[in-house]
Predict the structure.
Amino acid sequence: MKICVYCASSAKVDKSYFAATEKLAKEFVKANIDVVYGGGGIGLMGHLADTIIDHGGQIKGIMPKFMNEVEWAHKRVTDFEFTDTMHERKAKFLDDIDGLVTLAGGSGTLEELLEAITLKRLGQFTKPIIILNTNGFYDPLRQMLEKCISENFMDERHLQMWDFVEEPEQVIDSIINAPSWDKDSIKFATKQ
Ligand code: AMP
């Protein structure tokens, strides 16, 4: 399996977020899962890559060239793909993966997650989307998405697009057991 992970670049977040990132990284190595991520060397991104490398797992970074030019690329990650733009990078994240996991993060992480949800709603991306809700970090987003549904901006069936899990140990099971999704979801993307 190949899983894409979105997470924070910030190094100043509480240690519990680092601990959750580390646990998830170890779960992936144990299950022989390859990881694709943003290629950053610091924050939760850096810790994810360090843990995977330290435990003998596989991780690939995808980063726009301009970030490499300011030396944001993780020094120990050897498998790298450099893109011209952020848009190209985001498209490549979703290419040929078996699922997507979002850890806590800032606007970059939220933007990537919401784009993936939107593409899934339109049937352009069909893989599981798992949101790791460490410390209830994503409770407000969950409420917002549920409000979109209760106020008819989205359909009840869209609840099947994502799964919020509280612990890193639940992530792989959630990927494996995610409801199937296909291109036909475009038929109920918008309420008529
Ligand atoms: P955020 O969750 O706001 O920290 O955003 C994570 C995203 O921000 C990544 O996917 C990158 O697009 C970008 N980013 C910000 N800082 C860095 C960094 N130092 N290294 C790599 N990517 C970064």
Residues 8-10, 38-40, 42, 45, 67, 72, 105-109 surround adenosine monophosphate (CB under 6 Å). The mean pLDDT is 97. The beta strands are 2-6, 34-37, 59-64, 79-83, 99-102, 129-132, 162-165.
